[in-house]
Amino acid sequence: MRGKVMIVILLSILSIGSKAQTYSLEQVNDTLSFLSLTKDGQTDRYRLPWPTLRWCTGDVNGDGVEDAMVMVVKRTRYDRRVLPRLFTFTQINGRVRPLWLGSQLGGILEDFRFTDGQVMSLQRTTDDHYVVMTHRWRKFGLGADKILIEGVDRETAERLFLGASDKEQ
């Protein structure tokens, strides 16, 4: 009996100390958004001074902590073209911090979804064909996991991309 009481007390203490965290995205104008994290009643904001196209949350790196993924339009240090990029953020001590600021996933990012522990992307190639693929967290950043379809027109790729993400949600 004493062991059960200790477990109940321990679980109560753990549940009190583990308040939920929530991300939100506030779009101020076409080229300015703030990614906010509210945890333990405190809110931290991260300035995103670029157009944002889509965002979602999930545990992208498998560490048990909810992360945020944001598709922004900008150039990077390694790619001077202004293109959609997928940036991932995590929380450290209640503050929003970059986890991975990807320059590219492969092709030109058109859309993405997070489902079942992986990122699914819809990408356009330079010859205007389309690819749908999945990506998983590697030691540092997202790496290609599986090509679901490639070398197809946009309609075919979108049908697979949207159909696969609808089934998994």
Descriptive terms for the model:
169 residues; alpha+beta; four-stranded antiparallel β-sheet; 2 helices; 11 strands; disordered N terminus
Furnish the topology, listing elements before pairings.
Elements: H1 2-17, E1 21-29, E2 32-39, E3 42-48, E4 52-58, E5 67-74, E6 83-92, E7 95-101, E8 108-115, E9 118-124, E10 130-137, E11 142-152, H2 154-168
Antiparallel strand pairs: 1-2, 2-3, 4-5, 5-6, 6-7, 8-9, 9-10, 10-11
Question: Could you describe the 3D structure shown?
Answer:
With 169 residues, the protein is an alpha+beta fold. The protein is 18% helix and 53% strand. The chain has 2 helices and 11 strands. The strands form 3 sheets. A 4-stranded antiparallel β-sheet has the order 4-5-6-7, with no helix packed on it. Strands 8-9-10-11 form a 4-stranded antiparallel β-sheet. Strands 1-2-3 form a 3-stranded antiparallel β-sheet, with no helix packed on it. The termini are far apart.
Short précis:
By secondary structure, the protein is of the alpha+beta class. The protein has helices at 2-17, 154-168, and strands at 21-29, 32-39, 42-48, 52-58, 67-74, 83-92, 95-101, 108-115, 118-124, 130-137, 142-152. The chain contains two helices and eleven strands; from the N terminus they run H-E-E-E-E-E-E-E-E-E-E-E-H.
